[in-house]
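Lab notebook: predicted structure, single chain.

Context: the supervisor wants predicted structures on file for every construct in the current expression panel, including those that have not yet been purified. This is the next one on the list. No modifications to the sequence; it matches the entry in the shared construct table.
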Amino acid sequence: MTTGQGKRVVVIGAGIVGASLAYHLARKGANVTVVDAENIASGVTGRSFAWINTSSSESDPIAQLRSAAIEAYRQLETELPGLTVRWTGALSYNGTSSGAPSAAGTPSEPDRVSRSRILELEPNLKYPPESASYAPAEGALDPVTAVHALIAGARAYGAKVLTQTPVLGFATQHATITGVETTTGIIDADVVVVAAGTGITKLTDRLEVSLPIEASPAVLIRYKAQPNLVRTIISGPEMEVRQTTDGALVAAEDYLDDAVENQPAAIALRTAKAIQNELHGAASIEPECACVGLRPMPADGIPIIGYLPTVGGVYVCAVHPGITLAAIVGRLASEEIIDGEVSSILGPCRPDRFFRQV
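Prediction complete. Output recorded below exactly as produced.
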């Protein structure tokens, strides 16, 4: 079978992008099998700041994709009771903001708000800027909980999930995929969706297809904290933080290098001091965990989404920002794979841009 419902689709990767693909594909009637070498949400998804950040500039080639992300998540919330987004809004400033607030914008065009409004939003800020950007439609989620909700939804539509099942290779015939070779045997497939994060290149290399995807590290830190320290998502020059429903404070930091002073635990202590300096009531925060997540970053910074041009039946999803785009990419990719509806919004993301003749 090559088209329509009942198509056999193997999704490689059980992070948030793979889980969204599996759910949307199974909901459309595909015969879905999810395969992961480890466990559900065991990769970078579980080490993500999980900000659904849709703000973009006019020059952003995926601005349309970002702008569709919030509606896609709101749709998922109506379909999956276990998937909940905290739509707190996001407050961003660089420390040198100035000027008067503007009228409300769209989800991709944040409002400009004054210091008085900033303090209404975040009363614990010690040094609020003169003005900041506020995106009221943005939010964050618990990424691991969200993945499990998506996987449960996929299973409800008949999807199978195989964890601890490494992919060893691919079965092909006449340059077209026919199955996935795993440690437990071959899984027949009409389409294979490769959504394995930084593991994508290792898999596509086995098909003699080279994709320029690098592992981009970032540090995620979780602190024990008192409730109601942070109400929105704060992204400023000294800290990028949000607070979870259970009161934990989550912070994101750039990865620097492997030096002892830049190990995650050391960064967590420095970040704690910065947060304490910036927020009233943060004196008692304690690091719970700090880890490095490796994000799949295409060489040109644009997601790679679509069929490989050189091997039939292989659909790649290398997505950054993965949390932001998972819901909309899952929906649009499933429409392409099952319905044959080519999405113009995904146009800038096609893999064939790396294979064009010069």
